[in-house]
Amino acid sequence: MKKFMTGRGYALVGAAVLALGGGVVASAQAPERNVWSGVYTAEQAERGKTAYAENCAACHGDTLAGIDVAPALTGGTFLNNWNNTSAGDLFGRIQSTMPLNAPGSLGGKTVSDIEAFIFQSNGFPAGELALPPNQAMMTNVKISAQKPAG
Ligand code: HEC
């Protein structure tokens, strides 16, 4: 038994604990960003456009304008609904309730690609970094209907 507890083993456990601790500190300190500061890439929105056409357009329309009971995903009412929430909130809403006929069927990467396309369609600018493929990693990205001053 004792022979398995080598010095190397302890060192590995120590490194893992350190890595974990570092992650927690990093996420607690993640600075708040805003959808107006470029939180997705143009390439990502392009992938999202394709995924949107396959999974969402039948109900929400090719131009995101909404059809019948499926609301628009661009414009005043949509932005009002999501004003002062986070990209993580919208991600969670999409991943857990949409597509309405198959909720939970889309992987995180597809959901974030589609969210990037929705952001692009609402006039938020593209940037250098892609929207991450997971809800927890984008709770610091604020959605503001109006571009913040400054
Ligand atoms: C089968 C039809 C259908 C499909 C497919 C569908 N939706 Fe929906 N969606 C709806 C309906 C109806 C509502 C309003 C009722 C509700 O919220 O459940 C809605 C609501 C929403 C909302 C909330 C809008 C707001 O203003 O708060 C979002 C966001 C959304 N859908 C995104 C998507 C995305 C992204 C996809 C593709 C992955 C998708 N939906 C696919 C029918 C659909």
TrEMBL record:
Keyword Signal: yes
InterPro entries in the record: Cyt_c-like_dom, Cyt_c-like_dom_sf
Bilayer-spanning residue ranges: none
UniProt keyword annotation of Heme present: yes
Stretch forming the signal peptide: 1-30
Record's keyword terms, sorted: Heme, Iron, Metal-binding, Signal
GO MF term set: electron transfer activity; heme binding; metal ion binding
Gene3D superfamilies on file: Cytochrome c-like domain (1.10.760.10)
Domain (Cytochrome c) ranges: 43-122
Protein name: Cytochrome c domain-containing protein
Record organism: Sphingobium ummariense RL-3
